[in-house]
Write a structure and sequence with these properties.
Elements (H helix, E strand, L loop, with lengths): L9 H18 L4 H13 L1 H10 L11 H24 L7 H25 L20 H26 L7 E7 L11 E2 L5 E10 L4 E17 L4 E19 L14 E7 L5 E10 L16 H7 L2 E9 L1
Parallel strand pairs: 2-8
Antiparallel strand pairs: 1-3, 3-6, 4-5, 4-7, 7-8
Helix pairs in contact: 1-2, 1-5, 3-4, 3-5, 4-5
Amino acid sequence: MKISFEKYPIDIIICILWSVILLPIGLLDIESSIRTILGLPFILFIPGYVLVFALFPSRKTDRGIDVIERIALSFGLSIAVVPLIGLGLNYTPWGIRLEPILLSIFIFIVTIGIIGIYRWFKTNMEERFVIKADVSFPKSENKVDRILTVILIITIIIAMVALIYVIVTPKVGEKFTEFYVLGPKGVADDYPQDLLLEENGTVIIGVVNHEYKTFNYTIEIWLINQSQTYNETTKQNETVYNHMWFFDKFTVSLKHVPINIEESWKPQWEKNYTFSVNRRGDFKLAFLLFSQETEAYNKNFDYKNIAKEKIESAYRNLHLWLNVE
């Protein structure tokens, strides 16, 4: 049984409706799985299909092509047209961003689709290309043509499956952790530097996980008194750790957060940390970040013997210079 649509070009109408449905979903950032399902044909197939339809509104004749050729050309032209649209946008004030690309492809599909519909109606009714629900091979095809057709179909299916897998599978980029210390106003300024004995100082400690897996972070805070000495043998300045006291520690478990350059930066985890120092002198308040749980320390013990090893073993480290009077 064959079902055909001879009065209207139903395939182009579906392509345009598909694009109309996707446009608000893409612009409003609705559920990502729906965007992926609708977006793949919108980028990889529909632009090329409407272009092929506009060029060849006739069925398989001297002026037309068959269904398999249309499908193959549709994928190929889509892969060619979409980058060209992006290249053109690169030289416009809008640039290559989601909204301009989405709108440009939508305008291309609708415009070329309308041209294709116009040419289809201008084509002789007996020669128009129409969609038929018939997957059987034409009897006129010889054995070689059938084999080539099957190979082409299998190739298209494999290419589509591979492409969908590459797009849907999360891409692992550079792995890193953002670790920062801000002043009490939430900016990298106005840090507490000159304090009186046991006067409170406040900073904001922040961590953002871009490691593509959940990390159980440990943040250790140490009060360090150090000096510089010149090594005659190496001809370089070396750091001497005179004292190192354990100050504080806390842990936090954070999931991976993807990097989104299209949106404003947002903190994942921050802590307002208030501290006071009960010793006079010049100190370095060190903030050491570790990617796992660490051992317990005594606040009254001087760990100067392990200071260098401790600092070098930290995943990330930051510090503030303090003068306490």
